[in-house]
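Intended use. Records like the one below are meant for learning the mapping from a protein sequence to its folded structure. Do not use them to infer anything beyond what is encoded.
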Amino acid sequence: MDNMTQLIFRMPYCAGINRTSIDYFYYQKIHHQKSWAWWLNHIGTFIVFIISFCGNLLCLLVLCRRRLKRNSYTQYLIALAIVDSGAILCEAVTALDEIHRYQNPDKQNFIQHTLMSCKFYYYIRFIFYSMSSWVTVALAVERLVAIKFPLWSKHICSVINARRILLLILLFTMMIQSYHFVVKGIDCSPSSSLPLISQLTKNKTNCRCKTMPQYATFDIIVTVYFWRLCLMTLLPLTIIITVNVLIMSKLFSGNSLNDHTNALDNARRKTILLYKISRMLVIVSSIYLLLHVPGSSFEVMKYMFVNPFRICSTKWQYYISIVHNIFDLLTNFNYGINFYLYIISGQHIRNELFRTFKHSKFHSTNFEANGNFQRSSYFMSSYVHNSKNNQLNCSNIQLSKRPTGSSV
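Structure written out for the chain above:
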C-alpha cells in the first residue's frame, strides 16, 4: 500500500483498539507474508513495463514516419506513447523499491533520494499520470471536431494546433502538480507503526521519500479529491463518454457515407479513412476508461469511507489491499497496450508497421549489396591494375633483351 493508505489505516481512533489473534494473522499477511495480489501487482508491473517499452518504441518508429507524422492525431499518439512510457517506468521503479524493502527489511531503500530528487520524482511522476489522461481527452475531442465539422477541421485539426494544445496541457499539468515541492520530503524518523508491530519488529531509522506528516491532510485533499476525483475521474469520464457517443452516432448513422457517394474516389477514400481512424481512437479512449476509472474510483472511495466508518479491522484492510493491488495492475496495464490496440483496430497502422520493417530490411539488403559491390569492384580494379603492371614489366624485360646496334 502507498504512504497515504498506511496513514489512513493508522488514524488515532484505531490506537486504543484491542487486537485479537485474527488481527495479528491478517496483519502478518499484509505486511510480512504479502498477499497473492501484492505479488501479482508487482510482478505484473515488470511484465507490463517490458510490453509497454516494446510497444511504445514501435509506436514511435511507426508514427514518426513522414507518411503519418503530417497528421494531427499522430501528434497526440506520439505524446501518449512518451508519457505512458514515463508513467510505467515510474511504476516499475516503485515496484522494484518495494520488493527490495520487503526482501531486505534491515537495509536501506533501493533508491536513495536527496531532498530535491524526492520532490522532483513525485512531481515528474504525477505529470506523467496527468498527461496520459488529458492527452487521451484531447485526442477524443480532436476526433469529434474532425467528424462533426469536416470543413472547420481543415483549419482546427492541424499539426501546429495539436502541438499547441499539447504544450498547454503540459503547462497546466506542471502548474497543478507543483504542490509536490511543498508536501513531499525525506522522513528519517523511526517507522510509525500500529501497537502490534512492537511485538513483531523493532523500530529502525530508514529515510523514505514520502508525504511529510504535517502536510498529510492537505495532500489528501489536493491529491485525492481535487486531482484524482475531479481532474482524473469525473472530468475525463464525462468528456470522453459524451464525445464518444457523439462520434459513434455520426459513424453509425445511415447516411454517414451517403453524402460522399457522388464525390471523387480520392475524397471518398479520405473520408472512409477518417472514419476508420476515428473508430480506432474511440476504442482506445473507451479501453482507457475501462482500465483507469475503476482503480481511480476505488482510491477515492477508500479515502471517503474509511474515515467516516472508522475501519480499523485488519481483515478489512487485507481485503482493501487486495482490491487496491488488482486495480493498480489494471491501471498500469493501460500504459502498455495502446500500440497493440492501434495494430488490432487500425489497418493503416498495421500497413505502416509492415512498411517500416520492409523499409529497414530493404535498406539492410541494399547496404550489404553495396558493400559486396564495392568489395568486388575494389578487387576487380586491383586485379586490372596488377595485370597492367605485369604487362608493362614483361614488355620492359623483352625490350631490354633485344640486341642493340652497338653490340652487333
